[in-house]
Amino acid sequence: MQHFASDNYAGICPEALAALIEANNSGHEPAYGDDSWTQGVCDRIRDLFQTDCEVFFVFNGTAANSLALASLCQSYHSVICHELAHIETDECGGPEFFSGGSKLLTAPGIDGKLTPDAIEAIVTRRADIHYPKPKVVTLTQSTEVGTVYSVEEIRAIAAIAKRRHLKVHMDGARFANAVASLNVHPSEITWRAGVDVLCFGGTKNGLPVGEAVIFFDKALAVDFAYRLKQAGQLASKMRFISAPWLGLLNNDVWLRNARHANAMAQLMAERLEGIDGVKVMFRPQGNAVFAELPPAVAQALRNKGWKFYQFIGSGGCRLMCAWDTLPETVEQFAAEIRALCAA
Ligand SMILES: *Cc1c(COP(=O)(O)O)cnc(C)c1O
């Protein structure tokens, strides 16, 4: 049975699995990232972004975000993020812990997005020594509510950041879905728009495990390898984290996976919009649909075995589509909601 709880409920996509098996069959290789697979994937990522960047691999997104942010901050600094940001709500204080105390300063914003004004308001609120000095602004692309920052929005935020001497970090756990949605080159919403560091998610796009941390400003990556090692994020058999990326990068499988997941979210939204008693809360641009369902309907769906999260507002259900979500699953889920709402 397929579920809509998270895109990390899905398995490994065939291309990533094939690359993993190929790496396993290739014999002995040096450890700790000195292997040919890891070097090759780093080069592929540099090619993809059309720039000379520093690339690191970690086990998960919490480590990627926490350690990337820690490398941008001193303990007395602060990080500006949206109030729904994963780093604020779902990382158990990881960014604060690994940075040795950097505080997260949250701002509200419609559609899960920070705005230049919200950032400006936080930066100018205080300038005294008693306030943690703002040092980083972080954007989630695509956002926690399934929307996407446009190229112009990112540029505008990066412009404010530059003026206020803030670094720009991007939580790209669903970066692929944003690139697919915007139909732009990945550089256009990262370094060409002013992003300094990207946490490029692989897990939710079809990898078994692993995210890439990409420093477009290479100076910021100094000693990052030590930070990873200390945090327990340096994989000794790193090729098994890096090699599956080849499966995603070859033939743009990462974009195909993301386009498919996005299309399934579109289908879900279309089906739900026609149902009396159901409200789609945000215009889906990535692979998530948020819908308000009557509580009895949500409960009945759970009783039938469907899994999905309900954590935004009252009655807001997050329906997340993955690289392998079948249209039939969406149709069946929507049909069950329709029937329950009519009953
Ligand atoms: C899933 C996710 C992450 C990474 O979470 P892990 O469970 O630590 O891999 C980071 N940011 C966002 C927005 C996510 O959805």
Automatic annotation (TrEMBL):
Keywords of this entry: Lyase, Pyridoxal phosphate
Record GO biological process: L-threonine catabolic process
Primary enzyme class: lyase
Gene3D superfamilies membership: Aspartate Aminotransferase, domain 1, Type I PLP-dependent aspartate aminotransferase-like (Major domain)
The keyword Lyase is assigned to this record: yes
Domain Aromatic amino acid beta-eliminating lyase/threonine aldolase: 4-291
Catalyzed reactions per annotation: L-threonine = acetaldehyde + glycine; L-allo-threonine = acetaldehyde + glycine
GO MF entry, a single one: L-allo-threonine aldolase activity
Keyword Glycoprotein belongs to the record: no
This enzyme's EC code(s): 4.1.2.48
Cofactor(s) required, per the database record: pyridoxal 5'-phosphate
Highest taxon of source: Bacteria
InterPro entries attached to this UniProt entry: ArAA_b-elim_lyase/Thr_aldolase, Low_specificity_L-TA_bact, PyrdxlP-dep_Trfase, PyrdxlP-dep_Trfase_major, PyrdxlP-dep_Trfase_small
Pfam family, one: Beta_elim_lyase
Family of the protein in this entry: Belongs to the threonine aldolase family.
Function: Catalyzes the cleavage of L-allo-threonine and L-threonine to glycine and acetaldehyde.
Record note on quaternary structure: Homotetramer.
The protein's name in its UniProt record: L-threonine aldolase
Organism: Caballeronia sordidicola
Lineage of the species this protein comes from: Bacteria, Pseudomonadati, Pseudomonadota, Betaproteobacteria, Burkholderiales
